[in-house]
Amino acid sequence: MRLTVTLLAAVLLGLGGTAALAQELEQTAPVKGLPDPYAGWPRVELDTSAGRMVVAVDTKDAPITAKNFLHYVDSGRMKGAKFYRVVKVDTEFGFVQFGMQTNPKKLFPPIKHEPTTETGLHHTDGTLSMPRLKPDTAQGEFTITVGDQRPSFDAHPDAPGDNLGYAAFGKVVEGRDVLIHILDQPVDPEKNDRGAFRGEMPDDPVTILSAKRIAQ
């Protein structure tokens, strides 16, 4: 389930740095006066202790994964969830993780894995995704990528483990500055979650104060 900093650093070197990522983001982000590339995707407002983000989820191409996320939102279980893991490889490059932290009282049953080779989605900047152990085990943990991380997170022959990657299902469409603020949170070098994520957990994690669907 864990992706090492070494792997992500190698991806960064292969992409030529954050300037290229910023250029790609500018090319793919919604532009005023042009068609919205995420039109028709349900929107969810995440009001956090660091500010407001809006995410759009792709219920057409990744229906199982997107509807699972919306289930956590609609049930109220996302309220109080924390951004408990921060993996920062470089300036504006890495990922953050949030969710139920495997709390059995908050988890819904595992869902079928939807690899990017089936959905056609990719782990570019601001992509919502689901971490997992084996395929079909994902439940209530979510990641947001910062920077283009298709080589690490997408399904492809050279991907780690079973080569099936994570299941991408949405995009941050508002509040990228909040996402960067979360990525920049200082981590406690000793803090861990039952032995996992040592050196990747903020001492004071950002909390989701409310999560709700909003009109597009």
UniProtKB/TrEMBL annotation:
Entry keyword set: Isomerase, Rotamase, Signal
InterPro entries: Cyclophilin-like_dom_sf, Cyclophilin-type_PPIase_dom, E_coli_cyclophilin_A-like
Record carries keyword rRNA-binding: no
Domain PPIase cyclophilin-type: 47-213
EC numbers on record: 5.2.1.8
Highest classification ranks of the organism: Bacteria, Pseudomonadati, Pseudomonadota, Alphaproteobacteria, Sphingomonadales
Protein name: peptidylprolyl isomerase
Signal peptide: 1-22
Gene Ontology molecular functions: peptidyl-prolyl cis-trans isomerase activity
Key word Signal present: yes
Top-tier EC class: isomerase
